[in-house]
Amino acid sequence: MPTGVHLRDVRQQLFQAAERVLLREGPNALTSRAVTAEADVAKGVLHKHFTDFDAFLAELVMDRIARLTDQSAILVAAAGTRTVAENLVDALTELFDPVSVALTSLVFFRDELRTRLRRPDNGLPFLAEAREMLTSYLKAERAQGRIAADAAADSLALSLIGASHLHFAGRPRHTLPEEAELQKLVTTTIADVVQRRLL
């Protein structure tokens, strides 16, 4: 029986508790005991809903990945509005929020978790989906003539994801980069294809 508040959606309550632990204490503090304590439920509740802690973590990551579907649709719909750099800066800022950065670290360092989340192309879960999101957006901008017709959308997306992840993950916990720093990173990465659209 759970202790504390009544559980309406146990899985979401546990996911939200895990995110709070990640934000407050970082990936190393994320244990099944920490999650159930944060959620104010009995220790056995997590294992009633998930076969083990790695199964819980895998579903937590998949829940985060599922959110990218909506974010991707919004980003692609933004093609042709504002500037390409502004759209990318906003997307990357939302993408690499502190919880996502912490989850990416977990996936990278936990072999069992990475195995459970393995993709057919062996891409790193979450980052691979993020790359696909940016690729779709850049293709939409290319179709509208806002970047060069021969722009390699997939390679550009990979560069943006890799550089941005390092930019966000390399900072002390609870801090975010200045928007101007990210703006510079993005504009530098896409400068060639933006300039050549006019040639």
Brief rundown of the structure:
The protein has 199 residues and is mainly α. The chain has ten helices and no strands. The relative contact order is 0.11.
Account of the protein in words:
This protein starts with 9 loop residues before the first helix and ends with a helix. The protein is mainly α and 199 residues long. The model is unreliable at 1-7 (pLDDT under 50). The chain contains ten helices and no strands. It has two domains: 1-49, Arc Repressor Mutant, subunit A; 61-198, Tetracycline Repressor, domain 2.
Label the overall shape: elongated
Q: How many structural domains does the protein architecture include?
A: 2
Distance between the termini: 68 Å
CATH class of the largest domain: Mainly Alpha
User: What is the CA-atom radius of gyration, in angstroms?
Assistant: 19 Å
* Share in β-strands: under 5%
Please give a handful of descriptors for the protein shown.
2 domains, elongated, 68% helix, Tetracycline Repressor, domain 2, 10 helices, disordered N terminus, mainly alpha
Topology record:
Blueprint: H1 10-25, H2 32-39, H3 45-49, H4 53-77, H5 84-95, H6 98-109, H7 111-116, H8 127-143, H9 153-169, H10 179-195
